[in-house]
Design brief:
Blueprint lengths: L1 H6 L4 E6 L5 H10 L3 E6 L4 H6 L2 E6 L18 H7 L3 E5 L1 H9 L3 E17 L15 E13 L5 E6 L4 E6 L4 E4 L11 H12 L8 H16 L5 E4 L4 H14 L3 E7 L7 H13 L3 E5 L1 H8 L5 H27 L5 E3 L4 H6 L30 E3 L7 H10 L4 H4 L22 H18 L8 E15 L2 E15 L5 E3 L4 H14 L3 E6 L13
Helix pairs in contact: 7-8, 7-13, 8-13, 10-11, 15-16
The structure holds adenosine-5'-triphosphate (ATP), xanthosine-5'-monophosphate (XMP), glutamine and magnesium ion.
Keywords: ATP-binding, Glutamine amidotransferase, GMP biosynthesis, Ligase, Nucleotide-binding, Purine biosynthesis
EC number: 6.3.5.2
Pathway: Purine metabolism; GMP biosynthesis; GMP from XMP (L-Gln route): step 1/1
């Protein structure tokens, strides 16, 4: 992405992150409009920002209040730099409030907070909304408790909320703008049009961002990072991300790439056999399968804390990769020095270090095993070519490299596997066997009903509770299992899937009739937020 941005100098958008849950969405929307966009931490040094030669800098929203002591702010002399280089600045929510505060206006807690859908009315002839189709009452999404009450010199109100609050501000001569609402969320009905107006009319940016560019630039970057003689290992899971990453690196360095698939004992029904056969027959990638199931399961015995589990799995993966590297060293006479992983942008965002660590403003949700769970003493250097991309972008990249479409449509499966789908101790009783069977029935039923592709992810969860049932006139005291199916764009937010009740009834009957040890099925009807996709 760094290289990609270099090529788009003058047509790049830098998003400065102040911890909003929507920062990634801003980056994503801009890229969907064909413009190169990168996200940096809010107080990134000016030199880092300048290295992207942005035409537009967007300041994200955030959970803090600008008047709180120690709340995140902009790097020193930020506006001197943007004005001197005629760079446009757009603040969104917290970003707007920051502009107002830093430039000498006044922000204070609002008497009535605005959360959810609101209406705003642009001021006719404003630089932001013009006199055309956007100069009409707009239905927007707000989420703020503070408000700007006094604007800095040179600023005017560009739109007002129906409650009389400020909806947008502007200072066109200095190219500084602010929106109190969120144009990036779909609930702001004409949000995309507003972003287009800013990118293409206010900033005159050219839409020259294409997936083909990412492919070519990543190939060059991988070649220069790994060098002409070094070897790399790729941790291949059978999932979309690592397969696309492996295909990319294989294109870049050929047989110096050595793929390893780890059977950690936490895989789905017959997953090992299926994955190995697909790699060989359809993808033609050389892969070694390492059976480390006993090691993983013995380490996990008795571990019940979700974060503990994730960190332990992260450590065991790395140990396994290190051992594989040693084995290769004996065979090749040279030790591989790089580890390729299919880490995606959402993995990175959600594993962000907590505020106060000086590394990020968002909260840690859970440590994705391949990001937050990695040990510090790791010997292999990481190569993560998909680190800046979202899932749908990775699927497009895969298509460009002719990875079979059926494979690219696979539902995501987390690296810690069934360990985060068995609540509590993974090794309890028959939990692993039970969850494998239920999951297989559920997924096959989805495929048979033609629903698999319209669902982003579906799976079963083993609940460590026993409930009373009656089966064959006998009392049973067996496990309850939960089913989860969600729709999502990128796994960052999700909604539960509304099945026809008959479908759920059929799956429930099939499971209780054929899986020993289960007498109750529940269906998870929680979106993300407030829940996450996986239960741990
Ligand atoms: N069983 C495994 N063997 C080797 N590497 C693994 C395994 N499971 C996960 N990994 C590594 O961890 C990374 C993250 O896993 P994750 O499940 O997010 O991605 P994926 O499996 O590649 O794609 P998907 O999200 O579609 O399942 C993988 O890209 C891969 O590098
Ligand atoms: O590579 C991964 N390593 C992990 O540790 C991990 N945990 C969750 N997931 C997957 O990420 C998406 C969002 O999941 P959550 O809402 O549960 O965080 C969903 O698609 C999850 O399946 C993981 N992927
Ligand atoms: N969404 C936001 O950026 C909120 C900004 C600030 N925390 C407020 O409540 O006003
Ligand atoms: Mg996976």
């Amino acid at each position: 992405m760094e290289q990609a941005a270099a090529k788009h100098k003058g047509n790049t958008v830098v998003v400065l992150d102040f911890g909003s849950q929507y920062t990634h969405l801003i980056t994503r929307r801009v890229r969907q409009l064909g413009v190169c966009s990168v996200c940096l931490i809010g107080n990134a040094p000016l030199s880092t920002i300048a290295s992207y030669a942005p035409s537009l800098i967007i300041l994200s929203g955030g959970p803090h209040s600008v008047h709180e002591h120690g709340s995140p702010s902009l790097p020193p002399s930020f506006f001197d730099y943007t004005v001197e280089h005629s760079i446009t600045v757009l603040g969104i929510c917290y970003g707007l409030q920051l502009i107002v505060k830093v430039l000498g206006g006044h922000v204070k807690p609002a008497l009535s907070q605005e959360y959810g859908r609101m209406e705003v009315q642009p001021v006719p002839g404003s630089a932001l909304f013009g006199d055309g189709p956007l100069c009409t009452r707009l239905s927007v999404w707000m989420s703020h408790g503070d408000e700007a009450v006094e604007l800095p010199n040179g600023f005017t109100v560009a739109c007002k909320s129906m409650q009389g609050g400020i909806g947008a501000i502007e200072n066109p001569s200095q190219h500084i703008y602010g929106l109190q609402f969120h144009p990036e969320v779909t609930h702001t009905l004409r949000g995309i049009e507003i972003l287009k107006q800013i990118l293409f009319n206010v900033c005159n940016i050219k839409a020259d961002w294409k997936m083909q560019d990412v492919l070519e630039e990543q190939l060059k970057l991988i070649q220069s990072t790994i060098g002409p003689t070094e070897h790399a290992i790729c941790a291949l899971s059978g999932g979309v991300d690592s397969t696309v990453a492996a295909t990319l690196v294989h294109k870049a360095i050929g047989e110096r790439l050595h793929c390893v698939f780890v059977d950690n004992g936490l895989l789905r029904y017959k997953e090992r056999e299926r994955v190995m056969s697909t790699f060989e027959k359809e993808l033609h990638l050389p892969v070694t399968c390492v059976d480390a199931s006993e090691k993983f399961l013995s380490k996990l015995k008795g571990v019940t804390d979700p974060e503990e589990k994730r960190k332990m799995i992260g450590r065991e993966f790395i140990c396994t990769f290190d051992e594989f590297a040693l084995k290769l060293e004996r065979e090749l006479g040279k030790k591989p020095s790089f580890l390729v992983q299919g880490t995606l942008y959402p993995d990175v965002i959600e594993s962000c270090p907590p505020p106060g660590s000086g590394k990020g403003h968002s909260h840690t949700i859970k440590s994705h095993h391949n990001v937050g769970g990695l040990p510090k003493e790791m010997q292999l250097k990481l190569v993560e070519p998909l680190r800046w991309l979202f899932k749908d972008e990775v699927r497009k990249l895969g298509e460009l490299m002719n990875v079979p479409v059926g494979f690219l449509k696979r539902h995501p499966f987390p690296g810690p596997g069934l360990a985060v789908r068995i609540l509590g101790d993974v090794t309890q009783g028959d939990a692993l066997e039970i969850i494998r069977e239920v999951d297989e029935i559920f997924i096959n039923s989805l495929k048979e009903a033609g629903l698999y592709d319209s669902i982003w992810q579906a799976f079963a969860v083993f609940l460590p509770v026993k409930t009373v049932g009656v089966q064959g006139d006998r009392r049973s005291h067996s496990n309850a299992v939960a089913l989860r199916a969600i729709t999502s764009e990128d796994g960052m937010t999700a909604d539960w899937y509304q099945f026809d009740p008959k479908f759920l009834a059929d799956v429930s009957a099939k499971v209780c009739n054929s899986v020993r040890g289960v007498n109750r099925i529940v269906y998870d009807i929680t979106s993300k937020p407030p829940a996450t996709v996986e239960w741990e």
